[in-house]
Amino acid sequence: MIRIATVQCLSIPDNASEACDAIVQRLRWADEEAIDLVVFPEAFLLGHSYSAATIRSRAREISGYALVELCECVVGFRAALVVGAFELVDGHFFNSAFVIEEGRIAGRYSKAHPNEPGVTAGSAFPTFVRSGIRFGLNICNDANHPEAPERIARQKAEVILYPLNNMLKPEAAERWRAKSLANLVGRARQTGCWIASSDVTGRSGDFLSFGCTAIVAPDGHVVARVPEMKEGVAVYDVPALQFQEPMFER
Prior knowledge:
The chain is α/β, with parallel strands linked by helices and 250 residues long. The protein has a single domain, classed as 4-Layer Sandwich (Nitrilase/N-carbamoyl-D-aminoacid amidohydrolase). Helices cover 27% and strands 30% of the residues. It is built from 4 helices and 14 strands. The protein has a 6-stranded mixed β-sheet, with helices on one face. Helix 1 crosses helix 2. Pfam families: CN_hydrolase.
């Protein structure tokens, strides 16, 4: 069994120290609640963007020092965390999510279907083990592509994590309000895996996100969800699966 907590927040700091402080605060709570794994929204470290210039600037800051600062801040916590950021690797910009345990980067997943300008698609689908449960990651727009979770499920993963950032223009946010959860339910039924998402919510300037932070059972039943437009955490004790080869129905 693994106790997962997925965070829904009203805002994301664009300052590395403030972001680290917010993460540390959540990890203190997580250790008190015996949480094994904490998941933060897409690009939580410095924030998400659809501006190519902003993405480049934040990726350089992440790769230069912000990720190192975060790792130093989270040494000593029991809970592992998944936190995302734009990063610069060998001249390419990626939208990645990092698995961090006791201040060490255990691995990373880069968004396979990026919809941000200038961002390179990732091609690897690593899996990780925490509390005896194998899990993998997709990021936001990957939920629209059934082949992405299949790559994880075929490795006998039991959980797929989805960091999201549904901060959109209001008309687009309304269109995706039900679709985001429907995608997660579809991915659970398709793969036979548990699905856990973390999202932002509220208003930011001219943008809006209702928030789709939820934990979904393999049969598509939503077992935990943070209410729309509210800050909070979805928590669930996810049991180990008796693995069966998934049918990948779409």
